[in-house]
């Protein structure tokens, strides 16, 4: 069984969804500390031909709290308006914008559940078969940290392979996973390019940008553009 584990990121880049798509089960890692200034509640979209950083407004965010202890603010109307302004002339706006509005206005303001819902909604839209699980719902030894905790979760879920983003090469050791009969794989996203209006291509934007300019069929082809190391 192939397993992925990552912190919940709000509307992340396509590489995050490649990781979800390639595994059988994906653990939303919500009972680890919130990272201030990271990518949990922000990403980049295309506005007037340039990349623009957007933020999900939070309440009580602190690196001393777990992700599932942080709340999303109630005033997200500015973000909805920014998305509308940025993409109202995009080819798939009429299909994607209503989904984005529902995602941004989601009633459960627990940050983990809020982002988890967005991941589930987008995974359904892209027709994934992956089962998504919250790490906080697993019966486990919560005193473990870092790599040991990941291996523990893999063992609980009987994973034979663990997939992580390429950045995890600095965090995880293949020999330690092999000692538990788990194969460690790293996913590296290849160059993905597509037409964005008539401007020069701006790379590494949110999955939101990908969906606004491409059909589900086109996106699924892009999802296969990666290397496994």
What does this structure look like?
The chain has one domain. It is 34% helix and 19% strand. The chain contains eight helices and ten strands. The strands form three sheets. Strands 7-2-1-8-9-10 form a six-stranded mixed beta sheet. The chain starts with a strand and ends with a strand.
Biggest β-sheet description: 6 strands, mixed
Distance between the termini: 18 Å
Total number of strands? 10
What coarse outline follows from CA principal-axis ratios?
Answer: globular
Number of helices, where a helix is a run of at least 4 consecutive DSSP H or I residues:
8
Helix fraction by DSSP (H/I, runs of at least 4) = 25-40%
Radius of gyration from CA coordinates: 18 Å
Name the strands of the widest sheet in spatial order. 7-2-1-8-9-10
Q: Give me the secondary-structure category.
A: alpha/beta
Q: Any idea how many domains?
A: 1
Q: How much of the polypeptide forms β-strand, as a percent range? A: 15-25%
Helix/strand order, N-terminal first: EHEEEEEHHHEHEHEHHE
How much is the average pLDDT? 96
